[in-house]
């Protein structure tokens, strides 16, 4: 505060500069979303290679999970009794916990 007062004569905070620019812009995010929804079993490395990105796969994963709100969830098939994987939106607070996972594993062991 003293340094700011000596430099400017004021003690008001400086205006916000906007922060860093996002690594994945909106157009790239839409491309990633279409790729994930078209081929649900696509890997992060395949997305990175297809779009020619130089960022890490963890940034792509964060964009899919946080910005697109998609999670990789198992759904149980009633006919084949096998677990299928698919991307689907998940509401906040609806994350799986260990108790739920234990129940699913018990059910799968009982069915098999």
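^ structure tokens above, recovered residues below v
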């Amino acid at each position: 505060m003293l340094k700011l007062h000596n430099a400017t004569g004021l003690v008001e905070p400086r205006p916000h500069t906007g922060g860093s620019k996002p690594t994945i812009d909106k157009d790239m995010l839409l491309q990633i979303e279409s790729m994930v929804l078209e081929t649900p079993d696509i890997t992060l490395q395949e997305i990175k290679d297809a779009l020619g990105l130089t960022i890490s796969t963890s940034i792509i994963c964060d964009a899919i999970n946080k910005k697109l709100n998609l999670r990789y969830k198992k759904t149980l098939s009633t006919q084949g009794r096998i677990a299928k994987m698919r991307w689907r939106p998940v509401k906040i607070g609806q994350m799986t916990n260990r108790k739920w996972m234990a129940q699913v594993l018990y059910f799968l062991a009982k069915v098999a």
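The helical segments are 2-8, 26-38, 44-51, 57-67, 98-111.
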